[in-house]
Amino acid sequence: MLDKRNAAVADVSARAAPRFPLAVKMAVMVLCELCDLDRSTCVHGLRDRQTARERRAVLLISPRGMAHFDGCPHKGDDPDFSKWGRLDGNDAWQRIGNGESIDTVDSAGQEFVVTARCSDCVDHGPW
Question: Could you report the per-residue pLDDT of 77-118, keeping only the tens digit for each?
């Protein structure tokens, strides 16, 4: 009799036990100090996210020394980037915007002096 009762209690316990995930992720809403909206949706948070993306973006350097974000439409459909360079520096986009020129050498040994930023990339940000 005890075995049947214990089995019945174990069966009821297994069905009645709530099933919760072991880890629960909770979204934390951070409010903007300027507009009191969630930072993930307000314009001020967008500006911060855009700046963070600009800092870590790889820049393409045209033969004329102009910096572009990867995906900029200025290049067109031509897939040949053999005369273009790449720049992986931290804050390179900001430094070029501040008037600093950056010297870089690509893997083939070609030297580039970056002196300007693409105006479409300035307006749009990383593609």
Answer: 667 778 888 887 678 888 888 898 888 887 778 888 899 988
Give the residue among 49, 75, 73, 79 at the shortest CA–CA distance from 64. Answer: 75
- CA 119 – CA 16 distance, rounded (Å): 64
The whole-angstrom separation of Cα 101 and Cα 112 is 10
| In the chain, domain spans | 26-56, 57-124
Q: Burial level of 81, CB count in 10 A (0-12/13-18/19+)?
A: middle
How far from the centroid of its chain's Cα atoms is residue 95's Cα? 19
Instruction: State pLDDT tens for residues 21-66.
Output: 566 666 778 888 888 888 888 888 877 777 777 777 888 888 888 9
- Cα 21 to Cα 6: distance, rounded to the nearest angstrom: 27
8, 12, 15, 17, 31 from 3: Cα distances, Å = 9, 14, 18, 21, 58
Specify which residues 86 forms β-bridges with: 60
pTM, to two decimals = 0.60
